[in-house]
Write a structure and sequence with these properties.
Elements lengths: L1 H12 L4 H17 L1 H6 L1 H12 L4 H18 L7 H13 L2
Length: 98
């Protein structure tokens, strides 16, 4: 079941259609709230893809990813350590591009 959830999440986050990527961002937030262990156990794989949404060419996806990140940080806290450097770099790049 976890593999299916991750496959679906990855599929949504990498879709060509921006609305589908938005759906993926919201699904990630849902997983953080309801299955934080799933996200924590797969943090590197998930954030390798999620970071791309922080740099998304679509402003709506980009903004939603930033807003979701703010909500995820208190939930995931220490689990973010392995992805912290790349996460900070992506957010910094995002904010510098505005």
């Amino acid at each position: 079941e976890e593999t299916e959830q991750l496959t679906e999440l990855f599929k949504l986050l990498t879709d060509k259609e921006f609305r589908t990527r938005l759906e993926g961002v919201m699904l990630l937030l849902d997983h953080c709230k309801n299955s934080p262990r799933l996200v924590s156990a797969n943090i590197v794989q998930i954030f390798d893809i999620f970071i791309l949404r922080l740099q998304d060419c679509n402003k709506k996806v980009n903004q939603q990813a930033l807003e979701v990140l703010v909500l995820m940080i208190p939930i995931l806290r220490g689990a973010l350590r392995p992805v912290l450097v790349s996460l900070v770099a992506a957010v910094t790049e995002n904010l510098n591009s505005k």
